[in-house]
Amino acid sequence: MTERDGFWEPSVTEGFGVGPAVPSKLTADVTVCKGKGKGEGRYYETVQEAVNAAPDEGEKRFVIYIKEGVYEERVRVPLKKRNVVFLGDGMGKTVITGSANVGQPGMTTYNSATVGVAGDGFIAKDLTIQNTAGANAHQAVAFRSDSDLSVIENCEFIGNQDTLYAHSLRQFYRSCRIIGNVDFIFGNSAAIFQDCEILVRPRQARPEKGENNAITAHGRTDPAQSTGFVFQNCMVNGTEEYMALYYSKPKVHKNYLGRPWKEYSRTVFIHSFFEALITPQGWMPWSGDFALKTLYYGEFQNSGPGSNLTQRVPWSNQVPAEHVFSYSVQSFIQGDDWNHHLS
User: Fold this and answer.
1) How do 75-77 and 43-44 pair as beta strands?
2) Where do the Pectinesterase catalytic domain residues begin and end (predicted)?
3) Domain 184-342 has CATH 2.160.20.10
């Protein structure tokens, strides 16, 4: 059963909760710095070399400080590398960049990620991860995560189609900026996005002709899975360039909060601000009536010009006030219990 059948997970809190936090004082174990060369195992030229230096099955955090610079590489944090921390110098300053995409022979969406993380307890703070494959280059992932108990704070993810692949397990994003156009937040994780900025950017070769963009494509395949995307106190907008296009011809530029990639797709927006680019229908079908009876798309007390509920598709819902804390950090991803793991 799902919320559509009147089944709600019990809410264990009276508020939404602030969620797990990245510790404020982190001491670097190793430093990544361009042109620094190797120095006593503490300095690395590439992010991947620093990840390789992390202990296998490490119980303690391994902090990699990535100094300001542009690092052109595909980075993988394997399953056995747990509690790895990426600490940058700020969004737009520390930049990890790649351009792999599904248009290339033999490339899959999963493998196209510039940064792909499998080890649990991953933390990232103050950096940008991007995939520069053009808007015509099909699926091209910037960041993919299968890291349970992962915390991402003040990071920027830039791509076009499929920017952020929140693939599986429990993930928490705070104060991040996520930029893309087609299904650009997708996957089958249980992820909470708190205080994040979600921006649509222009796509395709002739952007002025218009498009249909879905911001999310959640991939829950079975109602027993405790997965879904929860956006709380987020801002949904377009880049400056996109909004100029949008206002020049609002009728041809349509942006939806989500579409059902899989049958039990689940996405909820709470206390968020929707700019005018969100279409009055709000949500978009995938193909015909696929998943429309089984998905759960909920909204609760959102604001802004795109938040008007009067023309919403009939297969979306308003979250009942008495059940809204089912989507709190603690109820949904047990986030208050992570802190012992993070301290």
Assistant:
1) unpaired
2) 39-336
3) yes
Q: At 130, is the secondary structure helix, strand, or coil?
A: strand
Neighbour-count burial for 79-116, b at 16+ CB within 10 Å, e otherwise? eebbbbbbbbeebeebbbbbbbbbeeeebebeebbbbb
Task: List 153's β-bridge partners, or say none.
Answer: 125, 174
- Give yes or no for residue 38 having a pLDDT over 80: no
In this structure, what DSSP letter does residue 320 have?
P
Query: Looking at the annotation, which residues are catalytic?
Result: 162, 183
Maximum CA extent, the chain:
64
- CATH 2.160.20.10 segments of the chain: 27-180, 184-342
Beta bridge partners of 200: 180, 238
Alpha carbon of residue 268 to chain centroid: 14
User: 302, 273 in Cβ contact below 8 A?
Assistant: yes
Quick check: 135 pLDDT over 90?
Answer: no
In the chain, the amino acid numbered 313 is V
Region of 274 please: left (phi>0), alpha (psi -120 to 50) or beta.
Answer: beta
**Cβ contact 312:282 at 8 Å:** yes
